[in-house]
Amino acid sequence: AQTVTQSQPEMSVQEAETVTLSCTYDTSESNYYLFWYKQPPSRQMILVIRQEAYKQQNATENRFSVNFQKAAKSFSLKISDSQLGDTAMYFCAFTRYRDDKIIFGKGTRLHILP
Amino acid sequence: DGGITQSPKYLFRKEGQNVTLSCEQNLNHDAMYWYRQDPGQGLRLIYYSQIVNDFQKGDIAEGYSVSREKKESFPLTVTSAQKNPTAFYLCASSKAGLHDNEQFFGPGTRLTVL
Lengths: 114, 114
Prior knowledge:
The structure holds two protein chains of two kinds. Chain A is mainly beta. Chain A is built from no helices and twelve strands. Helices cover 0% and strands 51% of the residues of chain B.
């Protein structure tokens, strides 16, 4: 069975700093997708970034980028120039290719301090 | 605007009562999902449905029931058999058949049992 582990329950950083959230996963599949979702205090879940396992290039979306290490089964999220609006719960998630379910980690609560 | 709506935003229930949470989407998505979110637990899958008139149990289906009579709607009933129903409930949808099963989320319903 696939599992997703986020080892940092909570983190705090100063505004404008760079922060990295960790995620590891376990699977025997070779084709799969990984996601980072953001849940701000409003509790609306928003997709931040997506990575396809067969693509070696790390995905980037503006200030958000990932470090995807397939052999190590690691998928960390880097937030550059952090902003107060980045304060949220962040969930790492996994889905197999063409699967009908997504498996979520337990989340990392990130506080951006002014 | 396309999206997912959940109602009500807050719901209070007395012990022993059944209650139904509404989820509607106008994204023309085939698949719909119900998750339960508790502090420190991440998102846990309750039920999901890939097509109308069909649904499958997720990881924590006991004490819950669903129906899928219309493509746009996937209501969740929390029955009196659910021992600890106080939680935040999220509905999601996705377009089945895609490689990555990206899910879009509603704003959630907070259920409190009094």
